[in-house]
C-alpha cells in the first residue's frame, strides 16, 4: 500500500508544478499588467500637483505648580497632538498666517507626529508653495504654544484669586475672634474658646499663604520651538518612486487575478490529470512533453518505452475476442483535429510488432500522417481501392521498413466529404483480424468522422488521443458521448504533446490507382496497373516484403505426414493460390484460404488449436 506521506508529497509536487506551468503559460499577462501599472504610476506622477511640506519641532513642558514639585512629571503628548489639530489652534494660526482659508481647511493640511520616548511634537504643514508650507508649520506651532500658555495663565489666575479670597475671609473671622478675646475676662471659658478659635484661623491662613506663594512666583512656560520650520527645497509629493512601485504592485495583482480567471475559463487539456478531473475518463498514458518529429521512434527511445508499457497493460486489460482465432481490434481516434492519433497508433503498432506478433495498421483519415510516420510510400493499392473492391485487403497492405511484422493500409484518395461505407470497413477488419494478432485502426474524432462511432461498437477497445495545449475538455466530452451512444468500449485516453505539423515535402503522394489522380507525380513515377485487374502473383521466393518462415508446430490431431528430409514437398491443392503452376487459376482475391501443410497463405490466427504461424516467404502482398 502506498505511503500517505508519499501521496501528500506527490500532491504538493503536482500543485507546485501546476502553478509553475500556469506562470509559464500566462507570463505575458503578468508582464503586460506590470508594464501598465508602471505606466499608470508614471502618469499619476505627471498629473499630480506639487506639494511642499515643512516641519516645526516643539518641546512641550508640563504646566502648573505640581510640575515644579515633581520634575519627572510628563505631558500626555497624544492628547496634545489632537489639541494642535483643533479648530481653536487653527483659528489662532489663521490669524498669524493672515489668510482667508477656513480653519477646517487649514486643519486638513496639518500632520502631527510624536517621536517615541520623548516630549517633542513635530508639526508638519503641507502647502502648494514652499513659503506657504513654512508659514503654516510655524503658525500652528506658535498658535499651539500661545493657546497653551494662555490656558495655563488663566488657570493660575483663577487659583490665585480663589486663595486670596479664602485668606481674606479668614482674616475677617480672625479679627472678630480677636475682639471677643479682648472683651472676655481673663481665665474665663469664653476667652479660652476664643483663643483656641484664633489659633485655628491663624493656622488656616498660614496654610493658604503657603499655597499662594508658589502660585504668585510661578511662571507660565508651556514649551518652546526647538526646530523652526525651514523653507523646503523640493516638493514632498508626488513621490515618483512610491507611485511607480504602487502602480507595479497593483498591476501585478490585477494581472494575477486576470490570469487566474483566464486559466480557469480555458478548457484546453494541459496535464494528464485534467482529463480525469474534467471529463472523468481514465488516463492510460501521458507522453513526455519533448517528442521528436513525426516518425516511428526506436525501441530505446523514452516514448517507445512508455508505449511499450501501455502495450503490456492493453494485453492484460483488453479481453480476448469472443470469436476464437480472431486478433484484437483496437480503435485509436483523435479527440481533436491533429496528428496525435496517427503518431500514437504508429508507435503503438510498432511496440506490438517488436514482440513478434503480426500487426495491421489501418487509417480512415484522408489526411492521415501514418504513411509519413511509418515511411510507407503509397502505391496503387490503398484503402480507397479496397473499398472500391479493386484489390483485396491483404494485397493492399504495405510493409513497414525495419518492422516485418507490421503492415500498413494507407487511406489513398478518400473523399473527406463522403461517408465511408461501414459495411466495407467491417469486412476489411474481419478479414485482417483473421490473419493478424492485432488490428489497429486510426480514425478522426467521432464528432467529425461518422465511421469512428460506427466502428467503435465492433472493436475490442477504443482509446482517445488528446493533444496537450490544443484539445479542449469539451471536445473529449463530445467524442465520449458519441461512443457511449453505441456502447463502445472506451477504456481511456492518451495525452500526447503538441506535435509539429508534417513537413510540406513529407506529404503523401496521390494514389496512382485513383481515377482523379491521373497525371500526378505518383502516377508519372511508375505506370499504373488497371484498377480492375489484380497484380500477377510472382513465383515463390525471397521477397523484400516478406518475413521469414517459422517452423510450424504440429498439433495432436491427425494431419498430413511430414515429408522425409531431402524430398520435395508435394504441391498443394491445385486450386490453392500461390502455387507456381496454377497462377492462372487463382482463387477469388481477398477471401481467407485455409492453411495447408505448406503454409502458402497469410498466417492465420489459428487452425483450430489456437496456434500462430508466420507468413510464407513466397507470399507477395505488394
From TrEMBL:
Residues 503-622 are annotated as: Disordered. Its main location: membrane. Residues 503-532, 564-590 have a biased composition (Low complexity). Residues 16-89 form the Polysaccharide chain length determinant N-terminal domain. It holds the Pfam family Wzz. The chain crosses the membrane at residues 27-47, 242-262. Gene3D superfamilies: P-loop containing nucleotide triphosphate hydrolases. The keyword RNA-binding does not apply. InterPro entries: Bact_polysacc_biosynth/exp, LPS_length_determ_N, P-loop_NTPase. Residues 153-211 form a coiled coil. One of its GO terms (cellular component) is plasma membrane. Keywords: Cell membrane, Coiled coil, Membrane, Transmembrane, Transmembrane helix. It is found in: Cell membrane. It comes from the Bacteria. It is a multi-pass membrane protein. PANTHER family: CAPSULAR EXOPOLYSACCHARIDE FAMILY, TYROSINE-PROTEIN KINASE. Belongs to the CpsC/CapA family. This is Capsular polysaccharide biosynthesis protein. It comes from Micromonospora marina.
